[in-house]
């Protein structure tokens, strides 16, 4: 497996141990509990590399299928099944996962920055 040392993940994350050299996870990415990253599909005799870019957040109990590329600065919603590539700076969710928002801005580990506090309180006296 090619997992950058800065990657954070829950102990319940499942990495494909049948084809471990096919797993590639870039820096500052977070994988929430119960998520699974696959690089093979035994029923189709498929062995493909799966890539997760830097600064991504993979939601709880999400499944990333073999051969999928998730671009940098992406957020994958909880319980999603990612069957196709996700372009950079997108939010994808659902089963199968679909792009629900593009051109997002996230920091390390897919954390969405807080808006300016003055914007939230501008209507207050």
- Termini separation comes to 55 Å
Q: The CATH topology, please?
A: UDP N-Acetylglucosamine Acyltransferase, domain 1
The strand count comes to 16
Q: What would you call the structural class?
A: mainly beta
Enumerate the spans where pLDDT stays under 50 for 5 or more consecutive residues: none
The largest pleated sheet is described as: 6 strands, mixed
Biggest sheet strand order reads 2-5-10-13-15-16
Assign the CATH architecture.
3 Solenoid
Q: Level of helix content?
A: under 10%
**Beta-strand content:** 25-35%
Mean pLDDT reading: 91
Note the total helix count: 1
The arrangement of helices and strands along the chain is EEEEEEEEEEEEEEEEH
**Could you give me the name of the CATH homologous superfamily?**
Hexapeptide repeat proteins
Instruction: Report the top-level CATH class.
Output: Mainly Beta
The gyration radius over C-alpha positions equals 16 Å
Anisotropy-based shape: globular
Q: What's the domain count?
A: 1
């Amino acid at each position: 497996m090619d997992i950058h040392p800065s990657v954070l993940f829950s102990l319940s994350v499942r990495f494909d141990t049948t084809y471990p050299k096919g797993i590639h996870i870039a820096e500052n990415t977070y994988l929430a509990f119960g998520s699974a990253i696959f690089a093979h599909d035994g029923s189709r005799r498929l062995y493909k590399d799966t890539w997760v870019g830097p600064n991504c957040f993979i939601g709880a109990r999400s499944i990333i299928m073999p051969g999928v590329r998730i671009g940098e600065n992406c957020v994958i919603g909880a319980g999603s099944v990612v069957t196709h590539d996700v372009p950079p700076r997108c939010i994808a969710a659902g089963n199968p996962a679909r792009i629900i928002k593009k051109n997002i801005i996230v920091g390390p580990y897919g954390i969405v920055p807080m808006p300016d506090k003055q914007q939230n309180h501008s209507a207050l006296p």
